[in-house]
């Protein structure tokens, strides 16, 4: 069965949605940058406010700390996936690495780039629907290493991004 094969290869981690108690840990919970949740709740960028860390988040956090090539498939509600992506971006950029986020649609790339935009790093969006001049400007900024987070469609795979610490598809 396909799901069993994916789990056996550790490409996926089966977990419940129960929260893990992070208060007993010596390390504070990860900071979750600007995130607008349903109902208007917002967590503040860079704050170390108590954050619920679900047990499905732990494998990604361990992988980010390990600094080796790893794969992980996450299936969770979109708000929780976005929170996990934001947390992973914060950790990756803090290590001096770049992030590449690939999505299937230009509109989704624009939306994700806006959600990942933060004063702590430069974010760029790149897709084929952009004018050639704008794409050339972004290419130039990336080649000069002035961009830390790139969000785009398949076309973003060919950008001259160096030091990639996280690829999120």
Description:
With 169 residues, the protein is α/β, with parallel strands linked by helices. Helix 5 (132-143) links the parallel strand 6 and strand 7 (149-152). It contains five helices and eight strands, in the order H-E-E-E-E-H-H-E-H-E-H-E-E. The chain has helices spanning 2-8, 58-66, 78-94, 106-116, 132-143; strands at residues 19-20, 35-36, 42-43, 53-54, 98-102, 123-126, 149-152, 164-168. It has a four-stranded parallel sheet, with helices on one face. A two-stranded antiparallel ribbon has the order 1-4.
Structural features:
single chain, alpha/beta, 4-stranded parallel sheet, two-stranded antiparallel sheet, 169 residues, globular, 33% helix
List the helices and strands and how they pair.
Blueprint: H1 2-8, E1 19-20, E2 35-36, E3 42-43, E4 53-54, H2 58-66, H3 78-94, E5 98-102, H4 106-116, E6 123-126, H5 132-143, E7 149-152, E8 164-168
Parallel strand pairs: 5-7, 5-8, 6-7
Antiparallel strand pairs: 1-4, 2-3
Total strands: the figure is 8
Structural class, judged by helices and strands?
Answer: alpha/beta
Largest sheet: 4 strands, parallel
Largest beta sheet: strand ordering: 6-7-5-8
Percent strand equals 15-25%
Unreliable stretches (pLDDT < 50, length at least 5) are: 17-53
Approximate helicity band: 25-40%
So how many helices? 5
Shape: globular
Distance between the termini: 23 Å
Radius of gyration: 17 Å
Let me know the average pLDDT: 75
Order of secondary-structure elements? HEEEEHHEHEHEE
Structure at a glance:
With 169 residues, this protein is α/β, with parallel strands linked by helices. The chain has five helices and eight strands, in the order H-E-E-E-E-H-H-E-H-E-H-E-E.
